[in-house]
Amino acid sequence: MESFDWTATIDINLQVLRAVGLWPKGLELYKSNLYTLYACSAAIVVLGGHNLSQIINMFYVYTDLEALTATIFITITNLLATVKMYFFVRNMGLIKRLLTTLNSHQFRPKNLHQVRLVQHSLRRWKVLYFLYCGIVYINVMMWSLNPILNGWVKDHGLPFQAWYPFDVQVSPNYELAYLYQLYCIWHTSVANINLDSNVIAFLMFTWCQCDILCDDLRSLDDGPSFGTRLIKCIKHHKAILRFAEDSSNFYNMIVLGQFATSTAALALTMFQLSLVRVPTCLIPCTIFYQVETMSGEFFTHLSYIVGLTTQILLYCWFGNEVEIKSSKTLSAVYDSKWVGQPQSVTKNILIFGMRCQKPIKITAINLFTLSLETFIAILRSAWSYFALLTNVDNTE
C-alpha cells in the first residue's frame, strides 16, 4: 500500500488554511516572500484591528451588564481564534513533520482490508468537516445579514458592537465599517473552523493507527515469523504513542483555550438569547429595545449555540474515540496465536500486554481529558454560569 496518502483526506482543509495565510506551500515554513507578507497583513488587519475595536468598546459599556455580555461573548471567541492561530503557526514545523511521519512505511496500511478499515474513519472525518462548516457558515451568514434582516441599517447598526476612531453614523464610513466587519468575521471563522478540523484530523489519524495495529496483532499466526512480526507491532505501538504525544504538543494549548472559553461563551450566549434585544446604536453607547422572540437575532444566537456546542462535541467525541480504540489493543494481543510460542516471545507478549492496559488519553496539559464526560461537564458549567448571570441581571 505504498501509494496510500493520509494527507489526501485533509487536502481541502490544508488548502483553505493556505488561503487564509496559515499554511505555507509543501514542507516549507514562513519565508521572506509575498505569502508571508499576506499572512502578516491579514493578522494585523483582522486579528489586531477587529479584536482591538471590540475590546475598546467594552470600556464604554462595562457598566451595562446586557451590553457588556453582548460584546464579550463574541470578543472571547475572536480572541480564542487568535490564540489558536498563534500556537498553530508556532508549531508549524512539528505539524508538517507529523504529516511526513504519517506517510512513512510503518504507518501505512499493509493490505486492502486495512485500507477499507481506515477509509471508514477518513470518510467520517470528511462528512463531519463539511457538516461543521455548514453549521458555522450559516451562523456567520446570519451575523452578516443581521442589520439587514432586523432593520438596523436605517439606524446605521453594524453586525458587531465595536469602537472606531471615526463616525460610522455617516456614509461612506458606515459602509466601510460594515464591509470591514464582514471580512474580519469571515476570515476568522474560516480559519477557526479549519484549525479545529486539523486538530480533530490528528485525533482521527491516531485512532486509525490503533485500528491498523489491532488488525496486525490479530493476524499474527503461529508460524516461525510470529516473534519477528510481534516486534514490528511493538515498535508500531511505540511510534503511535510518540505520534500522539507529539500531536498533543501542538494542540494541547489550543484545546485548553477552547475549553476554557467555551463555558463562558455558551453561558453568555444563552444569557443574550434570554434577553432577545437588538442594538440600535452601537458606538460609543448602546440603546436597546425589545423585539419578537422569533426574530433574526434570536435565530442568530441559537445557531451560534449550536455551532459552539458542535465544536466542543467534536473535540470530545474524537478524543473519546482515541481512548476507546487504543484500549482494544490488549484484546487484540490476546486474539493472536500466542499459545505455544517460545518463552522469549511470551515474555515480550506479557510486557507488551501490560503496557497496553493503559490506553491513550488525550488531555489538555493534563488538566482534563477529551471525553464525553468532559463535554457533559462543560454544558453543566455553562448552565450554572447562565443561571448566575440571570440572577445578577434580575437583582439590578
Give the N-to-C terminal Cα separation: 67 Å
Molecular shape: elongated
Q: Kindly name the structural category.
A: mainly alpha
Mean pLDDT: 85
Structure description:
With 396 residues, the chain is mainly alpha-helical. The chain has eleven helices and two strands. A hairpin with a 5-residue loop joins strand 1 and strand 2. Helix 2 packs antiparallel against helix 3, helix 2 packs across helix 6 and helix 7 packs antiparallel against helix 8. The termini are far apart. The relative contact order is 0.13.
Essential attributes:
72% helix, single chain, 396 residues, 2 strands
Structure at a glance:
This protein has helices spanning 11-19, 34-61, 65-90, 92-102, 112-149, 173-218, 226-275, 296-327, 329-335, 343-356, 372-395, and strands at 277-281, 287-290. The protein is mainly alpha-helical and 396 residues long.
Topology:
Layout: H1 11-19, H2 34-61, H3 65-90, H4 92-102, H5 112-149, H6 173-218, H7 226-275, E1 277-281, E2 287-290, H8 296-327, H9 329-335, H10 343-356, H11 372-395
Antiparallel strand pairs: 1-2
